[in-house]
Amino acid sequence: MDKDFSLILVKKEKEKEMLRLEKSNERSRIFGLELSKEQISTIIDKRFESLSNNGRIEFGEGIISKLVDAFCDSPFVSNDNYEQTLIELQDSFYYFKNESEENYSDDELISLMKKYFDEICMGSIDYLNSSSIEELTRKVRNSCDDYGKEL
Amino acid sequence: MEKNSLSQSNDYGKIEPVLFELLSIQTQKFLMNDSSSIKVEKAQELYSSICYSIKQYFENGGSVDFFINNPYDALKESQVILENKIQFAKKLFLSLKRCQFLKNHYAFNDTLKEIERGFLYYDYRYFADTFPAGITYWLSNSVSDDYVGIDYILQYLTYLNYELIFSSKFPCERVEKALKISYVDYNNLPLNTFDVILKNAFMLFIINKDVSQLTVSAQDKKKIKYLFSKIENQDFDNLVNGHLPDLLMQLGITDYEIELYIDKSLKNMKNLLISQ
User: Fold this and answer.
1) Which of A6, A62, A107 sits opposite B40 (nearest CB)?
2) Which of A1, A20, A57 is the best residue to mutate to test the B interface, defined by the most B CB atoms within 10 Å of its own CB?
3) How many C-alpha atoms does B202 have within 13 Å on its Cβ side?
4) Which of A12, B71, B109, B128 lies 20 to 30 A from B140 at CA?
5) For residues B122 and B86, is the Cβ–Cβ distance under 8 A?
6) CB atoms B24 and A59 under 8 Å
7) Residues of B in contact with A63 (CB under 8 A)
8) Nearest to B193 by CA among B271, B259, B112, B139
9) Which among B27, B53, B56, B64 has a CA at the least distance from the CA of B42?
10) Residue A1 confidence class, pLDDT cut points 50, 70, 90
11) How far apart are CA B263 and CA B240, in angstroms?
């Protein structure tokens, strides 16, 4: 295939994704979270950057709306860090997706990440990013910390 | 089917966006709606499979307009074409597998096992252009790299069938003897046995010896060497053109495609024969 495969798809998807995220604002507003148009545009640009960095392509409804749905009720997300958290979460999501070798569905992985983010990382994106998929799975399933202490 | 012909089509500008639409549908199906994203490499594999399948559709009279308006239906039609090719290839494979010829030849048997396994794992819905089989038995005329997927295997089996049809015209024990004289351990060598049989049969034929014997004696070799010492490259082609039809008639081979294949094989081994 001679052409840049991902670029062709990026253009087609960007406009649709803008509309989807604007709609997601309706749900997140309940928790005091809202994204401006500029922020939405930045997140989408970062989405494609993240997909490209992780060597992935996304079709149809992207993952951001699902991340918004799952994380908007997190006690660690506020309007101040909302945009940055979503950008980093989607990056982590694609990283874990590759690491898990497609063994988790999107919904399963988001659910694992949410539990890990809230209960183990205590909202620390850095801690989430420094974890491997094995740690994430093991700790969430066992619901215990590095020292085996029940959470 | 040639692998690049779709992108060379005049209508490719109209077809390409629809191919991406199909890629989106096929990716969702492949991922069973569990995942919204896929690795680029995997998406590329799915895309080349779609291109290969749709080529089948166009080569079998499918219309561009129908494809643009009903891409998924066109893909389904192409899959029916592929299914038919698979069935045909399986029948051909079974007839070759039943053949007792070369039953102890390592590369030949290994290739048959690989193809048999390939039929089990070949996924024409998502990876139509990749037939998962390692071919270690070389043919006299190799299949062009332009053939992929089931088309490659079909072409390989067709050529192999031509070779076995020719080889089976000679008694097994004489074939074995001729092969052993040329290569003692021929069963464990990755050599094409048809080439040896054809070479011997043709040499015997041009010196008016009994072709069915298949063994070329030292005295025969001298005569052949003398004969070839007098001819130029161009004359060799004329020699083949003059004798091959009669040889094949004597062996009861009347199929034109087989004749073309054998003709090509003989002309390919020109240098080998002349240096005898």
Assistant:
1) A6
2) A57
3) 29
4) B128
5) yes
6) yes
7) 36-37
8) B139
9) B27
10) very low
11) 7
Residue A90 has pLDDT above 90, yes or no: yes
DSSP one-letter code for A146: T
| Residues of chain B under the 70 pLDDT cut | 1-5, 7-8, 233-234, 275-276
Q: Among A84, A14, A91, which residue's Cα sits nearest to residue A52? A: A91
Residue B139's pLDDT is what? Answer: 95
A8 pLDDT band, cuts 50/70/90, is low
Got the DSSP string for B5-59?
Answer: TTTTSTTHHHHHHHHHHHHHHHHHHHTTTS-SEEEHHHHHHHHHHHHHHHHHHHH
- Mutation pick from A6, A10, A56 vs chain B, by most beta carbons of B within 10 Å, is A56
Are B27 and A59 within 8 A, CB to CB? yes
Give the whole-angstrom CA distance, residue B175 versus residue B191: 14
Is B36 within 8 Å of A9 when comparing Cβ atoms?
no
Q: Is B41 on the interface with A (CB under 8 A)?
A: yes
Specify the pTM: 0.83
Q: What angle do CA B97, B98, B102 make, to 5 degrees?
A: 65
pLDDT at A6: 55
Measured from the Cβ of residue B21, the count of other Cβ atoms closer than 10 Å reads: 15
- Tell me the Ramachandran region of residue A104: left when phi exceeds 0, alpha when psi lies from -120 to 50, beta otherwise: beta
Compute and round to an integer the Cα radius of gyration of chain B: 23
Check residue B2 and give its pLDDT.
44
Q: Do B35 and A8 touch (CB under 8 A)?
A: no
Euclidean distance between CA atoms B179 and B200, whole angstroms: 10
Chain B hits for A57, Cβ within 8 Å: 27, 37-40, 43
Please provide the size of chain B in residues: 276
What distance in Å separates the CA atoms of residue A80 and residue A83, rounded to the nearest whole number?
Answer: 8
- Give pLDDT tens digits for A11-26: 666 777 888 888 888 8
Provide the pLDDT for residue A2. 43
